[in-house]
Design brief:
The chain is an alpha+beta fold. The protein is built from 5 helices and 10 strands; from the N terminus they run E-H-E-H-H-E-E-E-E-H-E-E-E-E-H. Strands 2, 5, 6, 7, 8, 9 and 10 form a 7-stranded mixed sheet that branches. A 3-stranded antiparallel sheet has the order 1-4-3, with no helix packed on it. Strand 5 and strand 6 form a beta hairpin. Helix 2 runs parallel beside helix 5 and helix 3 crosses helix 5.
Length: 212
């Protein structure tokens, strides 16, 4: 993945970066209900994977926020031009493995590419990352729970990969379908306004996917 160093002398959040970098737990997280009614209907009608469709949308939404493509390295900041996803694949023994995917490609190419990558990862059944770890978005799902809050493990220190998680979807009394989506990021790099932009981007990506 291509990256560039952020000029810390010109970085407008350098005071915030120093402040939050010194904290023992410098992470900020938000969970928001996300409407997937139209996307779910479109996936069923087109016989496409809802999971892969949502994963693709979430990755593009995150890439649309420069702050989510930034990582802490040696006390400074680097910014990637794009970030692959590393998601969990459930295994028959109820454990999981990791699968890395790129997403900057047409959807008609993404679906078969992603399904083949998933198949190969399940065969290897490894939790060793198969890409440059620093560049990744860490993706998890809880398909058994429609949750309202989530606490996620982090390594601490300069570990600054954003984590994006979503849970089980459910239908309300008006026929709308939603699921909880959580974003966890390093507060030295990301503020609430940047997380809000992710959710705005996500809704736009979902609308685009659901179009005829």
């Amino acid at each position: 993945m291509a990256w560039k160093a952020v000029d810390m002398a010109q970085y407008p959040r350098r005071a915030h970066f120093a402040y939050f970098s010194a904290m023992q737990y410098p992470y900020v997280g938000v969970t928001q209900e996300t409407d997937v009614t139209e996307l779910l209907a479109a996936c069923r009608a087109r016989q496409r994977s809802f999971y892969l469709s949502f994963l693709h949308a979430a990755a593009l939404a995150a890439d649309g926020v420069p702050e989510l493509r930034r990582r802490i390295r040696a006390g400074g900041i680097v910014e990637y031009d794009e970030c692959p996803t590393s998601h969990i694949e459930l295994l028959e023994d109820e454990t999981y493995c990791y699968c890395t995917l790129r997403h900057h490609m047409p959807l008609e190419e993404y679906y078969p590419y992603a399904e083949e990558a998933r198949r190969q990862c399940r065969q290897r059944a490894s939790i060793e990352e198969d890409a440059e770890v620093e560049s990744l978005y860490f993706i998890s799902t809880l398909p058994w729970l429609h949750y309202s809050a989530l606490i996620q493990p982090v390594a601490g220190g300069e570990e600054s990969n954003p984590r994006i998680t979503w849970g089980q979807y459910r239908q309300d009394g008006n026929g709308r379908v939603s699921l909880p989506v959580t974003v966890l990021a390093h507060h030295a790099l990301v503020d609430g306004i940047h997380i809000a932009r992710f959710y705005q981007n996500l809704q736009e990506q979902l609308r685009m996917l659901a179009r005829p």
